[in-house]
Amino acid sequence: MTRWGRLARIAAVAGTALTLVGIGTPALATAERQVYVAMGDSFSAGSVVLPQSDLLTCARSAINYAGLLAKQLDVDELRDVTCGAATTSHFSNPQKGIVSGTNPPQYDALSADTTLVTVGIGGNDVGLVGLATSCVNLLPVGASCKAANTAGGVDKYATRIDAFAATYGTVIDQIRQRAPHAEIVMVGYPTGIKPGGCWPLVPVLPQDADYIQANIDRLNTRMAEQSAAHGAKYVDIRTPSIGHDACQPIGVKWIEGLIPSVVNNSFAPLHPNAAGLAAVVPSIRKVL
């Protein structure tokens, strides 16, 4: 049973016991203070989804999944240090602001009283957005980015992702050292594009669309494996986001295409919109 479940059960049992002895429930003992730290990159920060809470330094949305989750869990304190363009190096080192300022290392938000940590990271470390933009073909024929990245029988991105995988384990261990009582939840990446793509709506060739998604899936798999090996929980966002990829119409898609649909209050291409951020919350709650 998770900490969140145990607290609810303790409160219920305590309330019943006090009622039985004629005291009633108002005198319930104070539950443990809940401190939630959210770490991660632009997919977690909600770059650039309006309204923004921190536009200049991190392009962080006021309605990212951390903010929504904190409200639903009614935590005592939320320390949201998610930041656009973040890599795992910015967990232990300062990060220059998107427009101005400097962000302290994300690990600095952790402390002994932290009870919950969510982490969404890795896409920038392995260059997934760069891969997607390099695959753009404005004509239905042209050079394939899959062919370029798998030339000679070596898949450059698969190799890069596999080499990066152990970093997830290091991140989990570093968080546990700083926040030994926290529940650690690793949040995966969503489905970006449907099988075969949807040229010209998202102008990448069919084989390249599948190559992009295959690498997103590979990164998710490595994150899940390292989570299991290091005692953290993993949240699958890939599955619930199927059918809500960048190829879908406004009102259905959770990921924006190369030209964001500003009616979704989203201005970041190839990133989650407001609906995509909100959709992460139920999946996190399922593992808590």
N-to-C series of helices and strands: HEHEEHEHEEEHHHHEHEH
Strand order of the biggest β-sheet = 4-1-7-8-9
Rg measurement, Å: 21 Å
Number of strands: 9
| Overall 3D shape | globular
Instruction: Catalogue the unreliable spans.
Output: 6-30
Main sheet attributes: strand count, strand direction, barrel closure? 5 strands, parallel
Number of helices: 10
| Beta-strand percent range | 5-15%
Mean pLDDT: 90
Helix/sheet category: alpha/beta
Helix content: 25-40%
Distance between the termini: 9 Å
Question: How would you characterize the overall build of this protein?
Answer:
There is one protein chain. By secondary structure, this protein is an alpha/beta fold. The chain has a five-stranded parallel beta sheet, sandwiched between helices. A two-stranded antiparallel sheet has the order 2-3. It has a two-stranded antiparallel ribbon with strand order 5-6. Strand 8, helix 9 and strand 9 form a beta-alpha-beta unit. Helix 3 packs across helix 10 and helix 8 runs parallel beside helix 9. The protein starts with a helix and ends with a helix. About 9% of the residues have low confidence.
Topology summary:
Blueprint: H1 3-20, E1 35-40, H2 42-45, E2 52-54, E3 60-61, H3 65-73, E4 77-80, H4 89-92, E5 95-96, E6 102-103, E7 116-120, H5 123-126, H6 128-134, H7 145-149, H8 156-178, E8 183-187, H9 206-229, E9 233-235, H10 274-287
Parallel strand pairs: 1-4, 1-7, 7-8, 8-9
Antiparallel strand pairs: 2-3, 5-6
